[in-house]
Amino acid sequence: MASPARKRVLSGMQPSGLLHLGNLLGALENWKALQEQYDCFFFAADWHALSTNYADTSRVREFTRDLLIDWLAAGINPERATVFVQSRIPDHAILHLLLSMIVPIPWLERNPTYKEKQEEIKERDLSTYGFLGYPVLQAADILLYKPDFVPVGKDQLPHLELTREIARRFNSLYKPIFPEPQEHLTKFPKVLGTDGRKMSKSYNNTINLSDSEPVVRQKLKTMVTDPARVKRTDPGNPDICPVYDFHKIYSQAPVLDRVNRECRTAAIGCIDCKKLVADVMVEKLQPIWENRTRLTAKPDQVEAIVQAGSTRAAKVAHQTLEEVKEAMKI
């Protein structure tokens, strides 16, 4: 008997800057687990990077290359997952155009990220169709591959629901083509940065996968802690300390218990506390750094992986697009 086909997962990232621990813990670690169980498609969303960086595209190719290297260095296995670049498959743009004809504008205007990003990135003019309509491109990215699951954090659930709404509208207007993808929630939906806010390139508070060991340790030294600990003798509260959040991710139970106990009694200072988590963080990052060095020295190998993945993804995308055009009678 033939074995049943594995269910499919699809996810992507924008190459808008260097990948950081938030990307590793919030997405890549999840992807690594999923690739062992599902038919996974992971893509670099370079067109999406234009939605906020259209005025300066000088580093999109560089960031795309670094993004792919970071994925492979972190453990994404091209023998188990299809790794590709969005812009190499024109079918994404074609389906985006076709779906844009049926999506009501109010659906896009109610997108919570639309106004949040405009407030967050005030130095750029985001009053463009590309930014307003990027959820339609996102829906096209997803629906082309008919995935069963899309890995997301809780803050991205409205985006996935919009994709399902678009699928339902298309299926109702023309022909049932698209299944409605379900969410696969990430384990660490929010990783804090060095300033205590969500780790984000926009906040300049990241610990990057490409940072060297001295840089990682220095960033952790400057990381904010419990604001009540003004002096070394002041007791702290680990429950509100961003450094303790890293302990919960990286440290073993005995260290976690020790820090939790000794911080509250001021038996341990913030410098020693940060060193404990820095040691284990560096240990975890060491294999990624070694893989990055190896892959960076072999650009042809990385290109071959991406080309093979893009070729496989293009076959799947083209088949779906042909079904769409037949359903729409065009």
How many distinct domains? 2
Oligomer status: single chain
CATH homologous superfamily assignment of the largest domain: HUPs
Give the overall shape. Answer: globular
Contiguous uncertain segments of 5+ residues: none
List the keywords.
single chain; 330 residues; mainly alpha; Rossmann fold; Tyrosyl-Transfer RNA Synthetase; 2 domains; 3-stranded parallel beta sheet; two-stranded parallel sheet; 14 helices; globular
What does this structure look like?
This protein is mostly helical. The chain folds into two domains: 8-191 and 299-328, Rossmann fold, CATH 3.40.50; 211-292, Tyrosyl-Transfer RNA Synthetase, CATH 1.10.240.10. Helix content is 54%, strand content 8%. It has a three-stranded parallel beta sheet with strand order 1-2-3. Strands 4-5 form a two-stranded parallel sheet. The longest helix is centred in the last third of the chain and has 30 residues, at 299-328. The two termini are 39 Å apart.
Please give a quick description of this structure.
This protein folds into two domains: 8-191 and 299-328, Rossmann fold (3-Layer(aba) Sandwich), CATH 3.40.50; 211-292, Tyrosyl-Transfer RNA Synthetase (Orthogonal Bundle), CATH 1.10.240.10. Helix content is 54%, strand content 8%. The protein has helices at 21-34, 46-53, 60-74, 91-100, 105-109, 112-120, 129-132, 134-143, 157-173, 213-221, 242-250, 253-264, 270-296, 299-328; strands spanning 8-13, 39-44, 81-85, 149-152, 182-185.
